[in-house]
Amino acid sequence: MRFLITVSLFLLLAFLPALPAAASTAGTTATPQAEADLTLRLLDIPADTQDDPRARSYIIDRLPPGAQIERRIHLENNTPTAQIIRLYAGAARIDGGLFVGEDAGVRNELSTWTTLADPEVTLESGQSREVLTTIAVPVDAPEGEQYGAVWAEMRSPADEGGVVQANRVGIRIYLSVGPGNGPPADFAIGSLTTSRDEEGRPQLGGLVTNTGGRALDVSGSLSLTEGPGALSAGPFAVQSATTIAPGTTHEVTFILPKDLPNGPWIAGLKLTSGLLEREASTPVTFPEAGAGETITPPQAGTNPWIPHPVLAAVLLLALAGTALLIRRRKRQPHRRH
User: Fold this and answer.
1) How many CB atoms lie within 10 A of CB 107?
2) pLDDT in tens, 175-194
3) Region of 331 on the Ramachandran plot (φ > 0 left; ψ -120 to 50 alpha; else beta)
4) Cα 274 from chain centroid?
5) Which of 8, 125, 196, 323 is the most buried (most CB within 10 A)?
């Protein structure tokens, strides 16, 4: 049995930013609300992931086939009236940099492994309840990572046309199945592209590749230094957090102020996913309009001023010169005193 610690996390919307608090479909981007009608937050996280901010918001774990975990969730009714709240597990997928919750009724293997102790609760205005969520992985479960969500849903009475509005909030589930710890999470920053949008705002896009074995939620910042007249700007936050599945690549985008000079600048990116952090730094210049240049920043541990082929040639010449000098010394006759 895993040791769990209790945390108090007041999340307005645990699924933010990829899933909405109130929508008929679950794949749109959510906008923070001043006060959600329904609050859902995670109470338990494993002790070995207590420092990971993703694990504080989402159910993230790796389990061998046949294992089981339990997590408590806190549910609160913030509406002025009593509400009947339906609780269920649903399927989810990663698509186009978003963690997308499927419509109610769509299931996958993970959703069939997930049960809630109270599938339906009635809460008075301001009342709250803790509900136990259990994920039991069958012994014949396939290895790999699966995605799902725990949903809490309220429905309005049908109007004259028979239309029912659903308001739901969710907690993401990232579950990896397999023995041991599995491949570690990792990612790399690839090429950067500059541009200006139709409104004239400069943009910087960076390709991020998930080189590890777990899904990532990538966010971060961009700082510009050594600009015209020794100007500095930023840090600017990434436009929206991007969810990237293992083995895939997606672009993160920074949108900058319209009056920002073209440059040249030194762009410094710092991207994170949980406890992972990667950085890249390279000169950039923004175009007057439209698409600009594409730059590949130097990888960590390399000299940005010496290309790899040039460096290799210099080393070969140095080795050849050393070998030639040694042979000449060996051929010189010894002088007698």
Assistant:
1) 15
2) 999 998 888 899 999 999 99
3) alpha
4) 8
5) 196
The percent of residues above 70 in pLDDT, for the chain, comes to 77
Neighbours of 317 (CB within 10 A): 10
Alpha helices (H) in the chain, listed in sequence order = 53-57, 109-113, 308-331
DSSP 8-class letter at 48: G
Question: Which domains, from first to last, does the chain contain?
Answer: 4-177 (2.60.40.2310), 187-295 (2.60.40.10)
| Token pair of 69 as six digits | 């975990």
pLDDT(211) > 90: yes
Instruction: Outline where 4-95 has alpha helix (H).
Output: 53-57
**Residue bearing the bigger pLDDT, 320 or 292:** 292
Give CA–CA dist 154/165, Å, rounded: 8
Taking 70 as the threshold, does the pLDDT of residue 22 lie above it?
no
- Using DSSP bridges, classify how beta strands 166-177 and 59-63 pair: parallel, antiparallel or unpaired: parallel
The residue to which tokens 């592209």 are assigned: 193
pLDDT in tens, 85-103: 999 999 999 999 999 999 8
Strands (E), 198-318: 202-210, 216-225, 233-237, 242-244, 249-255, 265-273, 276-284, 290-295
> Following CA atoms 211, 213, 219, 220 in sequence, which dihedral angle do they give, to the nearest 10 degrees?
-50
The secondary structure of residue 298, as a DSSP letter, is P
Distance CA 51, CA 46 (A): 10
pLDDT tens per residue across span 237-289: 998 889 999 999 999 999 999 999 998 999 999 999 999 999 999 999 999 98
